[in-house]
Amino acid sequence: MKQLVLKAILLGTLGITATPAFAVRWFEVELIAFSQKEGAEIREDFSIETGPIPREKRLDLLTKGYNNVGHQACLSGDVKYDPRSVTERFTRQQSSWYCDDNINYVERYEKLPVIPVSEPLDHMQSMYLLAPEQLRFNAIRNKLERQGKNPILHTGWRFPDQSKKRAPNVVVYGGMKFEQPASYKYVEGGQNDSFISLLSSAPQRAIKTQGEDLWELDGTIKIHIRHYLYVTSNFDYRYLTDEGELESARMSQFTRVYSGDIHYLDHPKMGIIFQIRKFKH
Predict the structure, then answer these.
(1) Total number of domains constituting the chain
(2) Which of 41, 107, 157, 187 is 20 to 30 A distant from 94 in Cα terms?
(3) Can you tell me the distance from the alpha carbon of 34 to that of 237, in angstroms, rounded to the nearest whole number?
(4) Could you tell me how many helices (H) and strands (E) the chain has, helices first?
(5) Angle at Cα 216 formed by Cα 128 and Cα 184, nearest 5°?
(6) How far apart are CA 141 and CA 148, in angstroms?
(7) What was the pLDDT predicted at 205?
(8) What is the pLDDT of residues 138-197, one digit of tens each?
């Protein structure tokens, strides 16, 4: 009798420990971000200063996808992705080159590819990017292009059922690259034993500093679940004014959504169409 009780407890314990791996629901999200067609009727002022988008708990799935596009282009012989130095290109014009898949191709882009590339995966172990052949919005993207709207990014990823506290802020960026406005910091000019330096403070010199790349679209999306699906999005859309100045328009939204429905986040400068679908449940 005692052995039967122990066996029942053991089986119950194994059942409990095995359940979470199969009980967690998984979803996939697909989105298209695009710039709105320019129109004279837009009269909103987007020059108001906004604070930086929060940077905590970020998950970047796109950079590897963009690098994969560059690596494939390099393998196909696209001269824009020739990894050789200028000297090597000049002296060894007919030679082949080696395409390193660890190269940061993103820094070479003036405009990021619309569709980042990933191998098609089908697991439920960790969050991952959807492969191009797993996307379903190609007809929608083509329709946007026919309407004169400019798709910036078409991608998606798979993710587990997560609470607001545990869900990451997935990094979303794309489009044109803009130069970061130059800034300067002042440092000591070095040792100076002249008579003048004894009468005044040490001379200083200005050093130009360069920040990270600025992309046309830059922001994050967090998707968490509490009975319903909730989407928290924060984006900066950057553009050049008629005077050639770089400005940024902020779009921040918190939305409750239903799986399977197609949703639209609207802004005078940009828009996002997205859908969250159940995955294997």
Answers:
(1) 1
(2) 107
(3) 10
(4) 5, 12
(5) 110
(6) 11
(7) 56
(8) 999 999 999 999 999 999 999 999 999 999 999 999 999 998 765 555 555 555 444 444
